[in-house]
Every structure is written in C-alpha cells, then in structure tokens.
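During the reporting period the student researcher (J.K.) took over the structure-prediction task from the postdoctoral fellow and processed the backlog of single-chain submissions. One of the processed entries is reproduced below for the supervisory committee.
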Amino acid sequence: MQDQIDRLRAVAVPEQKLFIGGNWRPARSGVSLDVISPIDGSRLTTIAAADHGDVDAAVGAARKAFEKGSWSKAAPAERKKVLLRIAELIERDALQLAVLGVRDNGTEIGMALKAEPGSAAGTFRYYAEAIDKVYGEIAPTPENVLGLIHREPVGVVAAIVPWNFPMMIGAWKIAPALAAGNSVVLKPAEGASLTLLRLAELAAAAGLPEGVLNVVTGLGAQTGEAIGLHDDIDVLAFTGSAGIGRRLLEYAARSNLKRVYLELGGKSPNIVFADAPDLDQAAKLSASGIFRNSGQVCVAGSRLLVERSIHEEFAEKVSSIAAKMRVGDPLLLSTEAGAVSSVVQLKKDLGYAEQALAEGAALRTGGKRILEETGGFYMQPTVFDVAHDMTLAREEVFGPILSIIPFDDEAEALKIANATSYGLASAVWTGNLSRAHRMIRGIQAGLVHVNTYGGADGTVPLGGVKQSGNGHDKSLHAFDKYTDLKTAWIQL
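J.K. obtained the following structure tokens:
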C-alpha cells in the first residue's frame, strides 16, 4: 500500500471551483485562496473564495431543487439507492480520498483511511438503510378522531464543517439531511476543502439530482457569514469553535431565526481509578485518545485525571508512550501522529505549552516544535502535570498536549471533571460496576466511555451539554435536526 500512497502523493491537484446547481464554477469575484499542505508547508492548490453572491446562488439552487421535488418527494427507497451508490463510490476511491485529505490537513494516513472515507461510506450506508424504516405516528385519540404525526424534510440545510475530519463530520450532517429529503449547502473549512469537493463529484455521479448538494468554499468571515445571515436557509448545522458558534446564533437572530445546531468541542476528562482492570491498556488508549491526529479531535481526552495512589506510576506509563510515538510524515504508514493542520494552529499549541510552564506546570515530555527542516508543522506529543485551575486544564487547546491531574476520591474526580464550561466526551476506567454507573450519572458530558476511549460508532449519538453545543450527530436521533413534525387532526 505504501507504493500506492507514494504515487498518489505526487499527483497534482488542480485549482478548485465551487459546486453549485450541479455545475463547477469559479467564485464571482475570481478570488481564490492558497491551500498550504501541513506536511511540508508547500502550496498544494487553490480553492475558490465564495462571497455573498455565490452563497445566494447555492442557496437558490438548493431551494429550487427542493421545490422541484425530484429528491424531496422521491420515495425513500429511491433516495436509498442513490445514497448507497455514494457509499460505494467513496469505498471505491477510499485510498485516493484519504491521501488527498492527508495532503490537505495532515492527519496520519493510518487513521485517515478509517476515519475519513471509511467512516463516511459507513455513514451514508447507515442513513440509506434507515430512511425507509422511519415511521410517522398515530396519536391515541377518541374513536371519532384520527391524529397523525408526519415527518417532513425541513427544506434547505446548511452545514459548516471543520478541518480535522472533514469527510467524517461532513457525512454526519450531509447523509441524514439528504436521506430525509432535504437539499444541502455545504461549507468546508478553508483548511480542508478538497475531499468534500470530491464528494460532491461522487454524489453527482451516483445520481443525486442537480442542486440537491452544493459546496461553497471560502473564509468563515465571508462565506460562513453569508450562510449564517441567509434568509432562505432553514437549518444550519455546525461543528467548530465556541466563538464561531455564538456568532452563528447571532446571525440566525439577525436573519430568519433558522434553527442552529452546534457541536463546539470540549475539554474532556479521562478518569482513571486505581481499580482499573488493565492499567497498561488504559495508558495506551489514553495516549491515543489525546495524541491521534496531533490532538486535533473534538472528543480528545485532553485532561487525564488519575487517582493519587497510582498517579506517578500511570503518568509515567502515558509519558513513556508519548515520548516514543513516531511523529512525522503523515503519508507514511509507520507514522503514529501526523502534522498539526497549519502554522497558525502550531503557534497556538506552542503558546499553550509556554503558558503552562509560566504558570508552574511540570513538563514530563515534549513541548517543542520538531522537523522544522521539512517545512511542515509538527509538534512533540506533550505531557504536563498541572493543577486543575490552570489555563491548560480549562481551555480547549486542540493540539497534542495532555494535562495530568491527581484526585483522591470519586467526589473530587467529579468536581474536577465538571469544572469546565464544556461537556462533550469523557471516560472512566474502573473495575467497579457500581462506581462506573455513578460516574456515568455524575459526569456532565454527552458521551461517557467506560474502560475504553473512542470507538463509539454511528449507532449512538454524539453531542454535548453546556458550551459543547446543542445538537446530536450520528444515530437515528440525527433525523430530529433535519425533519419537521406536522400534525394532522382528522374529524371522522
């Protein structure tokens, strides 16, 4: 496989256009943005910079397609065929898509293959199979009344997705929205647009009607703002930073009060008790839970809470794993942690490490930029011992930096775990079933792993509480975002 990867990394990437109404077109302004590969800092290609007019054209194409009804009114079984075909085409081109994505955002190829095309294909297949099995309801009424509850597509759905796993997270939003019969306007992150532009091409080849899926690329401050303020978008689904999430809510209030569903990241606590069944396995998965994709994962276990009686032993296990991780060229199958997505993100990560030292945190390993001679953006997996109220323990870094915090008992573990504005993911390692259930109930998070970290598949929802957001991706619950309930009250 390495030979195939090496051949694909050498393929030139043409300048990219917008996909609107089934056609490829440049931005109206003619402006484009450079795509810089984090692997070596080189210019990979360009993407079109959509402005308000381009977004308006994309929304218009989506609305026209929705009202035409070739997709929105198609039988669920017909939509199912197209979505299954999209999944097949993604799987056919999986390696090509994975390599293209890695060149764009720096995720290690071993992870990208599974998390990007692999996950996206599975998501399209899941919702394809689900859509003709989602029923309406009959209300319990008097015998002279029939109460029916219908589910209908909302209309035009906009999705704004981040740069860390664009295909995976994009599919989480696109697939259920399309399955329900909606039209979609998609804005990828400017730092990772290439695979989603390719997905639009595959969807058209699979038979998705013109205008049902549109992709507009560009800067958040321009393209994203135009989406947020547009009066003809019914639902906006977003994954990204809390600051941008707040802005999108403001845009909705200033425009048509579109429904906005947000997944805004986290500062996830990973709690290890002394009675964990396998400390070596816990250390291994705790390390991968923060250092995979260089920590650029919304559910990353960035706060490691360890019971004091095993604190030093366990912290040393995790630090040893971190120090030995193979960081480097993400297109080598042997690489365990790839590149940080951009030089801006790298500087931010390094700044957090410097601030941690200034606040008195103890550095166990890492903390430095490496492989600078390649031109790429790489950082050592970094482990700090911190106090629970330090900046590094409170703010989402989105980089390869782990904070380790000791605790004495369940009550203190819960107090520290919940002492954050976020509430997305978490984990508990214990051999005590009763304790596991107490912690599941006590932790303020949308996802609680027990004796593992990661791996929750598409059958269960992913969403947060507090400032981690208000919507759920994955599972049948995703349909709640992209369908309206309509009641029919029939006097017999």
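The committee noted the following: The chain has a mean pLDDT of 97.
J.K. will present the remaining backlog at the next meeting.
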